[in-house]
Design brief:
mainly beta, 13-stranded mixed sheet, 3 helices, disordered N terminus
């Protein structure tokens, strides 16, 4: 973000009626819906009317304003998405052009008290039983085992045949027939499908097995480690004054936007379980604040954890409040509301706010955030002057505000789906999520890292009903990376099977860090920064199950790297749906601190990867000599080649070509924030390969058949040459399976223009920093 913007008029929380005309396609890829048992939320059935027609019925337990049916399988017709007809509380739709044996896959989207929800997929066979075979189950379930395992497959549908694969490919009716237990002697993924004549095939089920513990060979590390000089550990037995003195000293060192934004100092404030009274932690640059309890309520701060426009030079705005975080705490705000007025790379996770939450500066100046996940706010959350915000799997007492792009998934108390007026996009659930690994202290005073379980169709905080589900690892299986460590020592720890815990600091790498073992955890606190030297790629992750990356900042070195982080080798095809790799609170920077260069920041080749809150940023400001069109060069922020990749909270800014290139099939994005580069020197030198002006912010590959995205914003500020134009912000193939919802473009301070929102659709950006909105495409 730059420093000078015209602030749109603040909204006062007026919401308007629910926009019933939003696209019925919103859930067509399985997003946005809370899956509920029929007896609780709805009942549904499909009935044959005659030789060529069937009637589908849906009766919600709570009256719905609309119900949509989505179905595939009609011969010669693609996916259909239809608003059903209400008949006294039961919604109906008749499907024709059927023949005996025609198999339909169908599901519903329905409104319930504001947000909309989706059901699971159902199967109907015309002239048959109309049932779907139950998915195969695995015994033992997927996981890590010290030696080979005999795996039994079964289906609850009597008489069903199971076919399976063990190479990560999707099973079909011609795959190997299951006749007895399968011996899994090496790490692999078993995928299976169940079939029965006259019924619809089951959904594919998968289980990943890691044979031979990757952690057992890690030389034993300390269970109460030395975290080094930049980690502050507080306990309730310390006096409030001594704690406050340390917090204040760190804040004074890290608060100034002009002098601390590109410092190499980094800190973590960690609070052991207990109650802390009168504590006020103002959070500056490169500072992580976190509780060391297993759940947020284990650490209670009666006081404040605050980010504001702290400095006179900020002039009341929070556009550069980057690189700071709060996690795993309960806060009882001293003034009734916690203030978290941040821009990018400032996650607010696993927080229990017992009061209100203000996401804007006390001055009501502009802010450019932001991200919340797995949190609860008992009172009102107010965004007011925030440009955009994404909330995942949380709970709000209420919500107020919206400037351009506010997105919610799996969040109770979220506003209704009203984009663009106000600009709120609400999905009932998050399709797949897994919260971050985190450090905690057990009852014996030893440190462990908790690993939350994978959730599907999640809604609300993972800890809301008795604690987060998952497992944990002792710190004895983590190599603690501190000052003095080199790429060689870190790679040695990885090769021995250790997980990594990065402490605050800046780490120069003269060789690539190679994460090769399944289920490896790489966890950082206090914004540990990895700088590749001599043009090496900073980190590569093998195409294995269950790697978790969290809390890292990749800062490009002065010799160009091809990629800062690569997940999976090119051509990776293994199925990781049961245990995906997660990239969470991982940030990328090219320039600003040093004159960095990297062709790509993040490349994702592995299937099923979850990208959960990243900010990839080519700097538009910073230390002298570290930024400029020919100085901090970077083509693309994110390249996705793997299939079935999900991005929740994707922030990508200022790259010189396409900001995001998505080549994988079945990709999904919930919330995208982007700025086009400010420093394009001229139009003639900035044209995409198709000859159009500029490079789209988000390009879906020409060969992609299925892709869907919700809540996307792209802004231009061609400060160096306001005559520059971008033809469109989003570039996608014109196929029925490629669908975009709730998009916005803005010309900041009317520096240049964006002609269309997506392809040739959507109006040119208007003057006065006003948005051009488009509800759906196609």
């Amino acid at each position: 973000m730059d420093r000078i913007f015209v602030q749109p008029k603040r909204r006062k929380g007026v919401r308007g009626a629910l926009a019933l005309g939003l696209s019925a396609l919103l859930i067509a890829a399985g997003l946005g819906g809370a899956t509920a048992a029929a007896a609780v939320d709805y009942s549904q059935n499909a009935t044959s009317l005659n030789a060529t027609q069937a009637q589908f019925s849906f009766t919600p337990a709570t009256p719905a304003r609309y119900v949509d049916i989505h179905y595939t399988g009609v011969p010669g017709v693609g996916q259909q998405n239809v608003r059903m007809t209400d008949n006294g509380g039961t919604w109906r739709h008749t499907v024709g052009s059927l023949a005996a044996g025609t198999v339909l896959d169908y599901w519903f989207t329905y409104e319930k008290n504001g947000p909309q929800y989706d059901t699971p997929h159902f199967g109907y066979t015309h002239g048959g039983s109309g049932t779907t075979v139950a998915s195969p189950t695995f015994d033992p379930p997927g996981g890590s085992y010290p030696s080979a395992r005999s795996v039994t497959l079964s289906s609850a549908t009597a008489g069903a045949t199971i076919r399976y694969t063990v190479d990560g490919s999707t099973p079909t009716a011609s795959s190997t027939v299951y006749t007895g237990p399968i011996t899994v002697s090496a790490s692999s993924t078993v995928s299976a499908i169940a079939l029965k004549s006259g019924s619809a095939n089951s959904p594919v089920a998968s289980a990943s097995y890691t044979i031979g513990s990757t952690q057992a060979t890690c030389p034993a590390q300390a269970e109460v480690p030395d975290f080094g000089p930049n980690v502050r550990i507080f306990d309730p037995g310390m006096s409030a004054s001594s704690i406050q003195a340390k917090l204040d000293a760190d804040f004074n060192a890290q608060k100034d936007t002009l002098t601390a934004q590109f410092t190499e100092r980094r800190y973590a404030h960690l609070f052991k379980p207990g109650v802390y009274n009168g504590i006020h932690d103002n959070v500056g640059y490169y500072t992580s604040v976190a509780g060391l309890g297993q759940n947020p309520g284990d650490v209670v701060i009666n006081g404040d954890v605050t980010v504001d426009a702290f400095n006179e030079s900020d002039k009341g705005v929070a556009l550069q409040n980057f690189w700071r975080s709060a996690e795993n705490l309960a806060v009882v705000p001293s003034s009734g509301a916690t203030r978290w007025a941040v821009a990018q790379a400032a996650p607010f996770r696993r927080m229990d706010i017992r009061g209100g939450l203000d996401l804007f500066p006390a001055s009501y100046g502009f802010a450019s955030g932001g991200y919340t996940a797995d949190s609860k706010v008992s009172g009102k959350t107010a965004s007011i002057s925030q440009q955009q915000w994404y909330t995942r799997d949380s709970s709000y007492g209420s919500w107020e505000g919206g400037v351009w792009n506010m997105v919610f998934s799996g969040t109770s108390g979220a506003p209704a789906n009203t984009f663009p007026n106000p600009p709120e996009t609400t999905l009932g659930t998050t399709p797949v999520s897994r919260d971050v690994p985190y450090l905690y202290v057990d009852g014996g005073g030893k440190y462990r890292v908790f690993l939350p379980s994978l959730r599907t169709n999640a809604s609300g905080p993972s800890w809301a009903n008795g604690g987060t589900q998952g497992s944990s690892l002792p710190m004895s299986q983590f190599y603690v990376v501190k000052a003095g460590d080199t790429a060689s020592s870190i790679n040695n720890a990885l090769s021995q099977g250790c997980n990594l815990f990065f402490t605050p600091g800046v780490y120069h790498l003269n060789q690539t860090l190679n994460v090769t073992k399944a289920n490896t955890v790489v966890l950082g606190v206090g914004y540990p920064t990895l700088v590749p030297d001599n043009g090496v790629d900073a980190m590569k992750v093998a195409d294995v199950d269950g790697v978790r990356l969290k809390g890292l900042l990749f800062d490009a070195g002065t010799t160009n790297s091809q990629s800062l982080l690569t997940v999976g080798q090119a051509g990776s095809a293994a199925n990781h749906s049961a245990n995906p790799t997660t990239v969470q609170d991982v940030f990328f920077r090219i320039g600003g601190q040093i004159a960095g260069k990297a062709t790509n920041s993040l490349i994702v080749n592995s299937r099923d990867t979850i990208i959960d809150h990243i900010w990839a940023w080519r700097a538009d400001h910073g230390n002298a000599g570290t930024y400029g069109w020919t100085v901090n060069t970077g083509d693309t922020g994110v390249v996705v080649n793997g299939d079935n990749v999900l991005a929740t909270g994707l922030f990508v800014e200022h790259y010189q070509k396409y900001q995001v290139i998505w080549n994988g099939q079945n990709g999904r994005t919930i919330f995208f924030q982007n700025e086009i580069p400010y420093d394009v020197p001229d139009q003639a030198g900035w044209k995409s390969p198709n000859g159009l002006n500029g490079y789209a912010a988000y390009k879906v590959g020409d060969n992609v058949n299925t892709h869907e995205a919700w809540g996307l914003g792209s802004y231009c500020f061609f400060n160096d040459n306001p005559a520059v134009n971008l033809y469109h912000a989003f570039e996608v193939p014109n196929r029925s399976g490629v669908r975009f919802h709730n998009m916005v473009t803005v010309s900041l301070n009317y520096k240049g223009t964006i002609t269309h929102v997506i392809n040739d659709a959507g109006a040119v950006t208007p003057p006065d920093t006003r948005p051009s909105n488009l509800v759906s495409y196609p």
